[in-house]
Each structure stands twice: as structure tokens, then as C-alpha cells.
Specification:
Length: 651
């Protein structure tokens, strides 16, 4: 009873704090001025503290059932009853710790990064609304509340990406993100409709219970899973709905960290994990999730090789790493996917904020060709950025090594083709990340003009988050360690067992997909896989060093590249394809309807209706003479007509 009372107050307060920060910064921001940043940061940090208290109160290693916290009834229509209710379990607690923890660091970093911006208070209001929407998404007890949070983060991403709305590039990027995500959201809506139609409920607990008890629902499970998969593809930027994510770099750099690290882009991964009973019961959909994830991971990694904008490199890196997570979820390795979600949150937030520190020092310069030699001027940024790069490259003992190794091990058991693609992606990842490191921090300085004389380390309010994230990127991998190393550790496997167990019980057809961490029966095979994984990472780093340190090659302009290099630099011309074969035809069709169908047909009909009404009114107006004798004649005439009608009927 004590725990129930604790959760009934803790969870709503945890969600409400960012909402309060949004209202305060949004309404009183102009009066608060610089204090708006501290108010918003404080709101998210307090949410993080409440998330820690909630984790301690829940006793996740001992609880096998979720805690449902109902705030108030929301929708009552026909046979459906929906409440604003939150589901507190191992998965939701895991997500809120990541969202509020890393989110508060990004808020703190933004205080200095956005200083002096005329939209300072508006920026922090949007950030708080984003966190509020994300918390509703991951804590939702039902699909409708989850969809409300889902759309909320979509709205906030549009506002934050297009924050500098006076720039055409930012406004266009925001619109691109909004429209692309609507495609995925259509699949999400269809999935919700299918689930409700066959189960009569949108509650996650009731849906899980309905799967084995509703034979008709089991027949449409693959279709429902596919619809939800489409929704996940949109939010998590998988092919072919990935195009919005690189353009999202038009927003301020901390926004990129917030969207690309711990929040919006991981919503698709969370959705698959939350609906694991449905996805585990549709293994054929899981296979296609793995296929799309593998192709996306390799595709984005190849593009990252020839990008010269430091944020674009990290953006395509995010798309690639999300592909890794999709491979894990598709092969049934949910623990591996969620593990990589957390480690990625740390090292990718670190890398984005590190790039923001560089951009801040260079007065908004983002081109790698105009950097170089910065390690002597920005020691903290350099060290933390290298730690993040080592983590994403899978170099031990950093966190990315453990999570990536676990995914590669699971994909090896699932299929050697997926494993091969994963290895090649890991090689390319290490190469393009250390290409970025070498071009930014090593070699001779290529910083031009007055920027070179003003080079300095970022202020403490920006470097402190970098240090904290670097520590997280270095140590969080030890939560899940192969049993061949140091005796092993399976903290996350045991932690997520209650959330995933029900799904495995419902779907006996996919028991071949192990969810129990590094459960390998052959230690020698595991040693080989581990060694190969580390070797490709080291090889990528070494190759980048040979090209950009020893030979001191500086990337050329896109226009001077030829062949495959030009294709990769131009991102396979997918944006051009979408523009020429999808966007432009739709715009032309819209112009045709506007100029011809609407103007010449619809407008003509509407104007014709008006003319008919005017003509009728002219006739009727002539009858209204105001002379009593005329009205008497009309009355007599009308009476004769009515009597004649009845007489004719009588005959």
C-alpha cells in the first residue's frame, strides 16, 4: 500500500515537472530572461531525481508485474474506457532514467550554448515540452496515450528543428521531418485500430492477455506487427523513411543531441520492445525488421565516409546505429537492442555535444576541412570526443564494445549474412568516426582568420556535461559483460526478464531467439567473435590514421569527386530522387487542381449556385409589392390551387 501511494504521487509529479517548466518558460520567458534556462533545467533534473527514487521504490529485480498509476479518466465513448494512466515497469523506468538523465545534461549544456539567442526562452520551453511528451510516450499504459506522446515528440521535433524559422533551410528541414513522420504515423494508427478491433482494448496488459485467448487476433498479428513496424521506421529513421534525420541538423546542436541520442529516434525501438508479445508472435515481421535494420546500418555508414559537415557525419552515424538496434530487435535479441540504446544514448549525446563545443569555439563553423589541430586548444572536448569515438567504434573497455559485441553475437546465431553486414558496418563506423577525430583535432590547423586567434575551451557549464557523458560512455558497458570476460555480468538480462518473459511464453515458435544475454555454449566461438569484432574496429581506426594522419589527406569538394565517391557524398541521390519523382509531381498535381479543377470547376459551381440564388431572389422580390390587394389575390390564387389539388386526389 505504501508503494502504491508512493507511485501515485511520484510518477505524475515526474511527468508534470517538464510540463510546468514548459508553461513557465513559455508564458513568463521574456520576464525571466536567462533564468528560463535554469528553470527548465531544474525541472528536468528534478524529474531525473524522481525517476531514481521510483526505480528504488519499484525493486525491479523483485517485481514481476507492472504498477499501473491512474491519474484520471480521459475518454469514455461506447465500449471504450481510456484513462491517463502510467505503466511503471522495468522497461519504462529504464527509459525515463535515460530521457531525464541525459536530457538534464543537454539542458545544462544549452544554457551556455544558446546564451544571447533571441529565442532563448522559447527554446527551453520547446525542450521541456519535448521531454514531457517523451515521458508520456514511454510511461503510457495504453496505445492511445502512447500515441499522444508519439505525436507530441513529432510536433516538438518540428518546432526544434525549425527553431531558426527565419532560415529557409531550417524551416524546410522541420517540414520534411514532420511530413516524413506522418507516413510512419499512418502505419501506427492502422496498428492501433487493428489491435482495438480484435481485442476490444488498447491497454498493454489486456492486449498481452488477449493474444492467446483470441484466435481471430492471432491471424492478424503479422499485419498488426507490420503496421507498428512502419510507425517505428518513421520515428527511428530507417530506410526509406530516413531522409528527415540528417536534415534535422538544421536545428541547434543540443537539439541534435536530444533528438539523436536518447529521445525521439529511440521511440521506434521502445515501441517494438513494449509490444514484444505481438512482434515475438510474428517472427516473419521480425525477419524483415532485421533486413531493414541491416541495410540501413550499412547504407548510412557508407554515406558517413564522405560527409564534411561534422554534424552530418554524426547524423548518418545515428541512422546506422539505429539500424544495429533494429537488427537486434528483429532477431529477438531485445536485451541487446535495449542495451545498445542506452550505450548509444551516452556516446552519441557526448559526440553531438562535443561537436557543439567545437562549433561554438569556431563561431559556427561546421566544415571538417576548416578545422584541425584543435586538441591543443580544447583539451576537455578533445579527450571526451575521443572517448565517445572509441565507444561507438566498439573498442574495449568502452560501453559500445559490450553492446555491439552482444548484437554481433546474436546476429551470428541468427544468420551469417546479418553478421557479415554488421562487421562491415562496424569497420566503416570506426573509419568515419576517427576520420572526424583526426580532421578536427589533429594535424595542422586549417582554421581561418580571426577564428584562429579566439580559439578556447568551452565554459564549464558545457564541459561538465561532456565529462559526465564520457564517464557514462566508458563504464555503462559493464552492465552486460560476456561470461568469458571477468566471469560475466548479466544485470540487464535479469532486469528485463519480467518484461520479456510473457512474450516468450506466448510465442513458443521463436524460442530459438535467446533473450538471456551472452548465452553461448561454445566459449571458443565467443572468443573468436569477440576478437573479430575488436579487430575490425581497430582496423578502421588504423586505416583512418593512415589516410588522414600519415598522408594528411584533406577531403575534397563534393563537385570534384567522381565515381562511387561522388555517389556516396551525394547520399546515393535519394533526396534528389524523392524531390524529382515524389515531391515535384505532388506539387504539380496540386497546382493543376488549384488552377484548373478548383478555379474552373469548383469555383464555377459555387459562383453558379450564388447566381441561381440571386435570380430566384429577384423573382420573389417582385412579388413582394407591399400592396394589400396584390396579397389578397395571391391568397385567393393559392387557395384555389390547394383546393384543386385535393379535389383531383379525391377523383
Amino acid at each position: 500500500m505504501v508503494e502504491r501511494m508512493e507511485f501515485s504521487s511520484l510518477i505524475p509529479a515526474l511527468v508534470a515537472l517538464p510540463l510546468a517548466g514548459f508553461l513557465i518558460s513559455g508564458i513568463f520567458g521574456n520576464r525571466l530572461k536567462s533564468a528560463a534556462g535554469f528553470v527548465s533545467t531544474g525541472a528536468v533534473f528534478l524529474s531525473f531525481l524522481l525517476a531514481v527514487v521510483s526505480l528504488a521504490a519499484f525493486h525491479p529485480m523483485e517485481r514481476s508485474v507492472p504498477e499501473i498509476v491512474t491519474v484520471f479518466p480521459w475518454i469514455s465513448a461506447g465500449g471504450i474506457q481510456i484513462s491517463i494512466a502510467y505503466q511503471v515497469d522495468q522497461l519504462s523506468l529504464y527509459m525515463i532514467l535515460i530521457i531525464t538523465g541525459i536530457g538534464s545534461l543537454i539542458h545544462l549544456y544549452s544554457i551556455a550554448y544558446m546564451k544571447g539567442d533571441p529565442g532563448y526562452a522559447r527554446y527551453f520551453a520547446y525542450l521541456n515540452l519535448f521531454v514531457f511528451s517523451m515521458l508520456n510516450l514511454v510511461l503510457a499504459e495504453n496505445l492511445i496515450l502512447l500515441f499522444l506522446g508519439w505525436e507530441g515528440v513529432g510536433l516538438c521535433s518540428y518546432l526544434l528543428i525549425g527553431f531558426d524559422y527565419h532560415k529557409d533551410s531550417a524551416a524546410d528541414a522541420g517540414m520534411k521531418a514532420f511530413i516524413t513522420n506522418r507516413i510512419g504515423d499512418l502505419g501506427m494508427l492502422l496498428g492501433i485500430a487493428l489491435v482495438f478491433w480484435y481485442t476490444g482494448s488498447v491497454s498493454f496488459v489486456e492486449i498481452t492477455e488477449a493474444i492467446p485467448e483470441t484466435p481471430t487476433f492471432r491471424y492478424v498479428l503479422p499485419l498488426a506487427a507490420f503496421c507498428f513496424f512502419i510507425g517505428a521506421m518513421g520515428k527511428s529513421a530507417q530506410l526509406p523513411l530516413h531522409v528527415w534525420l540528417p536534415d534535422a541538423m538544421a536545428g541547434p546542436t543540443p537539439v541534435s543531441a536530444l533528438i539523436h541520442a536518447a529521445t525521439m529516434v529511440t521511440a521506434g525501438i521502445f515501441l517494438i520492445a513494449r509490444l514484444n508479445p505481438i512482434f515475438l508472435s510474428a517472427p516473419q515481421v521480425g525477419h524483415w525488421i532485421a533486413v531493414v535494420g541491416s541495410v540501413t546500418a550499412l547504407f548510412a555508414a557508407t554515406i558517413g565516409l564522405f560527409q564534411n559537415d561534422i554534424k552530418k557525419v554524426l547524423a548518418y552515424s545515428t541512422v546506422s546505429q539505429l539500424g544495429y538496434m533494429f537488427v537486434a530487435m528483429g532477431t529477438g535479441a531485445y536485451v541487446a537492442g535495449l542495451f545498445h540504446l542506452m550505450t548509444h544514448a551516452f556516446f552519441k549525446a557526448l559526440l553531438f555535444l562535443g561537436s557543439g563545443s567545437v562549433i561554438h569555439a569556431l563561431h559556427h563553423e561546421q566544415d571538417l576541412r576548416n578545422m584541425g589541430g584543435l586538441k591543443n586548444h580544447m583539451r576537455i572536448t578533445w579527450v571526451t570526443f575521443v572517448i565517445g569515438s572509441l565507444a561507438i567504434s566498439g573498442i574495449p573497455p568502452f560501453s559500445g564494445f559490450f553492446s555491439k559485441d552482444l548484437i554481433l553475437e546474436k546476429t551470428y546465431a541468427y544468420g551469417t549474412l546479418f553478421y557479415g553486414i554488421g562487421l562491415l558496418t562496424a569497420l566503416l563506423t570506426a573509419f568515419y568516426m576517427f576520420r572526424t577525430v583526426y580532421l578536427t583535432f589533429y594535424g595542422s590547423s586549417r582554421v581561418e582568420g580571426s577564428k584562429a586567434s579566439h580559439l578556447h575551451e568551452s565554459p564549464a557549464v558545457m564541459t561538465i556535461p561532456l565529462v559526465i557523458l564520457a564517464v557514462g560512455a566508458a563504464v555503462t558497458g559493464f552492465l552486460e559483460v560476456p561470461h568469458i570476460l571477468f566471469g560475466g555480468s548479466n544485470v540487464l538480462t535479469r532486469y528485463f526478464a519480467p518484461v520479456l518473459q510473457r512474450g516468450t511464453e506466448i510465442s513458443s515458435m521463436i524460442v530459438k531467439h535467446s533473450l538471456d544475454g551472452h548465452a553461448s555454449s561454445d566459449p571458443s566461438t565467443e572468443w573468436i567473435l569477440l576478437a573479430v569484432g575488436v579487430s575490425v574496429g581497430v582496423a578502421g581506426i588504423f586505416a583512418a590514421g593512415v589516410v588522414f594522419l600519415r598522408n594528411r589527406n584533406i577531403p575534397r569538394d563534393e563537385e570534384s569527386l567522381t565515381g562511387i565517391q561522388r555517389i556516396l557524398a551525394k547520399k546515393y541521390y535519394i533526396d534528389e530522387f524523392y524531390k524529382n519523382f515524389i515531391v515535384e509531381p505532388i506539387l504539380l498535381l496540386g497546382k493543376f487542381f488549384a488552377d484548373h479543377v478548383e478555379r474552373n470547376f469548383l469555383d464555377f459551381m459555387l459562383r453558379g449556385t450564388g447566381r441561381v440564388a440571386v435570380a430566384i431572389s429577384l423573382v420573389l422580390r417582385r412579388i413582394q409589392t407591399g400592396v394589400v390587394v396584390d396579397y389578397a389575390i395571391l391568397i385567393v390564387f393559392g387557395t384555389i390551387v390547394i383546393l384543386s389539388f385535393f379535389l383531383m386526389r379525391g377523383l
